[in-house]
Amino acid sequence: MSYNYFSKKILILGMGLTGMSCINFFLKQGIRPKILDESKNPKNLFKIPKNIKYSLGNLEHKWILESDLIIISPGISSLKPTLIKARTLGIEIISDIELFSRETNVPIISITGTNGKSTVATMITKIAQNAGYKSFLGGNIGFPVLKMLDKTADLYIIELSSFQLENTFTLKSKIAILLNISEDHINRYPQGFQQYKKTKISIYNQAEICITNSNDDLINDLAHIKNKKWISFGTSTSDYHIHHENQDNFLFFKNKKILNTREISLYGYHNYNNALVSIAVSDAMKFPRNKTINVIKNFQNLPHRFQIIKNEKGINWINDSKSTNVNSTEVALNSIKTTGKIRLLLGGDSKSGNFNKLKIYFKKLKIKIYCFGKDGIKLSKIYKKKSIYVENLKEAMILISQQVKPGDTVLLSPGCSSLDQFSNFEERGNLFIKLIKEIT
After folding, report:
1. Residues in Cβ contact with 4 at an 8 Å cutoff, skipping those fewer than 6 apart
2. Where in the chain are all domains bearing CATH 3.90.190.20?
3. Is 3's pLDDT higher than 90?
């Protein structure tokens, strides 16, 4: 163990997957932390070991200011007044990612971005495994990083949200990737997009190789990060790019053709960029190119990420429940090729996102928008002519079942957080799938 936590008063905030992994991490060292959760009845309460002190209902607790070290779960804002006060008193507040990075010397590939993180992280993990590396994937994808410490590994791949990066300070990635950046979680960042962007960019701070998207134009934002190897993708002048030629799209490195996108199973133009990044990482890791291409050709869309559920009677049903921000809905709308009408399910908690940028699509597309959830009424006003408000996903699907025609595409791409009506985006996507089965 590289850090000594024995003499410290340790407090864990949050009883979700992250919090539970932190408890187990410390118990293995013979250390008993305390734990707080904002919920009065967290679902993991029955898993808390008998010898662990806990408190429920809110975070306004004297334990915070009595601690030496606080490990904060990503769902909890670092900007709560009590935590700001704790910092001014010199109390250390870190993420589980920070805890993890202190404990390992295994090379790490870290991935963040507004969209596409899970797809790229999973693709890279499969490529690494295909190349013979003992590789494990964790982080924001739903497998806590601390659990990976129990495994003997050649390589860790970690998916990171901005929330996890807020309290991560010593992560030394072999390769760090910022896939793309657009407005998201603006309700969490009082200083707006710039603060969100700065948090995302921090992934590069101590990385050896940095992979960056030329479309994001971050040159001024990255000027302070020195002595790195930079690899770019995304535009025609980038190291890795997509080249259009005679009705086909090809993946290129510099002036060398790598692959025709027709050979890729993944659906949607954004996924060609995801494949491009995975090739850039694989080349930087010196994985055999044939092992990389083999995985990319056969890789399927992950569940809830522009996943085609059914295509029958001329109706296409697509589950894009992982779409939790405006940009991801925009990407989904750009990926649909149809002669019929798009029936878009939009709604949930909009997190103060700017949905007006979808108006241009709503005007030009043959589309009907079914707005539901917490911000459904607000969303239905963006383009009233083609929108309708319903209370929830089930009501929307009943309506769609009465109106859908051959040639139509039914797209669940909510652009919003699911937490107003569901416990997560998977639950939302699974209900959509269940309702499709009932309808069809």
Report:
1. none
2. 307-439
3. no
Name the 3-class secondary structure at 250.
strand
Residue range 318-358, pLDDT digits in tens? 999 999 999 999 999 999 988 899 999 999 999 999 999 99
214 known member of a binding site: no
Please write the tens of the pLDDT for every residue from 77-99. Answer: 999 999 999 999 999 999 999 99
119 carries a ligand binding annotation: yes
Q: Is 212 annotated as a binding residue?
A: no
Residue with tokens 């009590």: 82
Domain 98-298 has CATH 3.40.30.10: no
**Residue 292 marked as a ligand binder:** no
Do the annotations mark residue 199 as ligand-binding? no
CATH level 3 topology of 10-94: Rossmann fold (3.40.50)
> Which residues does the annotation mark as catalytic?
117, 140, 185
Class of domain 307-439: alpha beta
1 has a pLDDT exceeding 60: no
Q: What mean pLDDT is predicted for residues 397-414?
A: 97
Burial class (CB in 10 A: 0-12, 13-18, 19+), 200: buried
Amino acid letter for position 228:
K
Q: What is the dihedral sign for C-alpha 183, 186, 188, 190?
A: positive
Query: Residue 69 pairs with which residues in a beta bridge?
Result: 10, 92
Q: Where are the alpha helices (DSSP H) in 149-192?
A: 162-165
Q: What is the mean pLDDT of the chain?
A: 95
Question: What is the spatial distance between Cα 296 and Cα 281, in angstroms, rounded to a whole number?
Answer: 13
Contact 102, 3 (CB under 8 A): yes
pLDDT at 54 (0 to 100): 97
Let me know: does 238 contact 307? Beta carbons within 8 Å: no
pLDDT of 227 reads: 84
State the distance between the two ends of the chain, measured CA to CA, in whole angstroms. 55
